[in-house]
């Protein structure tokens, strides 16, 4: 199952021992600007190598995902069918949907999106989405983690479903939280077991891109821009690291602007 | 909100570039055994420094969490109140609860548990649980991630709630998937902003433990045994790494035996 959308939020801090970028909330945006490849206004896939913009780049929202945290949309108990009330339970601080019949609480929690960044012959494998949202735009194979599987297993499964590619996981590459839409991306570096891939039902095309040819101007989600930007930086610096960060929607920008984000609390090995 | 339980499952592979431990499923258990501190049969908190056992150690299950993936327990649509049917939707492979009135699907996904491993004066901060399950046993401050917050923010919040400790995040330390109960732990290294802490409502006690005094025999969950074992190993080897792994329940063992697990697909920086 492909990812249905993307977006962003945040707050926080961070420090020592790792190579940590300082707080990158908007008020600190002049500190240690994180740069990403400049989106090419030319609709062709070729990305201009430089110059690079500062950190404010992609994100794309899906209305269905934006409502993932809307507790008031839960009107009935899924276990007994009773009507719910919306209240803050004793000892808690958040508004919850509580069944007026059986008393059970319908907790809502963020979802994990797992995927693979597949390296092959100094290229990476991308899929062109054959479904909405972001139909026709490029993504890494990724989708929601299912109950009963590990993040690693889920990433391998999604890659098989979307690219018919049998991969071997190399290492975790990035954990990217997108609090506003209740998603956390977990991207693994992977390699093809055999040099075969083809589009699955949710993809119209699968293609290997050299780093200079990654279609930054035609990516589906902010998470993909962040992931691929960090990867390109890492490779140019020598080798991939592990990254943690929060993708936060830049206030006042269009939900459809996948470049309107900040990467906050960025930490890497 | 504290974690309500713990457990395990898995399958997979793994390779190069990072220091990767080979496949650690049961059939490969004789390869590269992962060792953890030997649980001290003495009920005092003092842990014997050596010998160390092989990888088979903790886990503790909560019946409420074990049912987290039980799609058949979803009998009504939480949005329209219609009865559900349990079927595999077109284009999918998993059994889902589908509303017979509005057609919406109630997806169930794994939950993230976020927490802090707080370092202070060469000691770590643990909380004694004042709630079930695992009442009276020791845990890191941790709980379910909420929609609207990043993993980092959630870990900081839980630490404040359970230990009244204001912490600063140092780095990600471990991602541990527990597929059988649909949980993923994300543990961050952290430090106290001020040397103050005290038990919150869900804790009866908070205490700093030197590494040799960590109560491995009185921990609440397998995830805590894994996290603290890896941490002790890392510190003894020089410095903390970032770890990814899957905690899998060892077949045929009691659900209450928190040491009956394997750590599979273990990768670290």
Automatic annotation (TrEMBL), chains A, B:
Keywords recorded for this protein, A-Z: Hydrolase
Gene3D superfamilies: 2.20.70.10, Nucleoside Triphosphate Pyrophosphohydrolase
Alphabetized GO MF terms: hydrolase activity
Cross-referenced Pfam families: NUDIX, Zn_ribbon_Nudix
Stored PROSITE patterns: NUDIX (PS51462), NUDIX_BOX (PS00893)
Ranges for domain Nudix hydrolase: 109-232
Signal peptide: none
Protein name listed in UniProt: Nudix hydrolase domain-containing protein
């Amino acid at each position: 199952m492909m990812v249905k959308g993307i977006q962003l939020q945040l707050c926080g801090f961070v420090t020592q021992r790792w190579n940590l970028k300082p707080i990158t909330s908007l008020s600190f945006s002049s500190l240690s600007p994180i740069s990403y490849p400049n989106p090419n206004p030319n609709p062709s896939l070729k990305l201009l190598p430089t110059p690079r913009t500062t950190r404010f780049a992609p994100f794309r929202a899906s209305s269905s995902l934006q409502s993932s945290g809307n507790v008031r949309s839960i009107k009935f108990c899924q276990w007994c069918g009773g009507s719910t009330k919306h209240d803050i339970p004793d000892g808690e601080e958040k508004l919850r949907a509580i069944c007026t019949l059986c008393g059970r609480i319908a907790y809502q929690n963020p979802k994990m999106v797992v995927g693979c960044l597949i390296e092959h012959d100094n290229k990476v494998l991308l899929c062109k989405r054959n479904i909405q949202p972001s139909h026709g735009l490029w993504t890494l194979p990724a989708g929601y983690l299912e109950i009963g599987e590990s993040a690693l297993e889920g990433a391998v499964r999604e890659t098989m479903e979307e690219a018919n590619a049998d991969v071997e996981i190399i290492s975790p590459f990035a954990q990217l939280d997108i609090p506003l839409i209740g998603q956390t991306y977990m991207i693994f570096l992977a390699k093809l077991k055999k040099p075969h891939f083809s589009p699955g039902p949710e993809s119209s095309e699968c293609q290997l891109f050299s780093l200079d040819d990654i279609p930054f101007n035609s990516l589906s989600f902010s998470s993909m821009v962040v992931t691929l930007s960090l990867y390109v930086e890492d490779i140019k610096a020598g080798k991939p690291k592990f990254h943690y960060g929060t993708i936060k929607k830049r206030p006042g920008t269009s939900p459809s602007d996948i470049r309107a984000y900040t990467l906050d609390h960025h930490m890497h090995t």
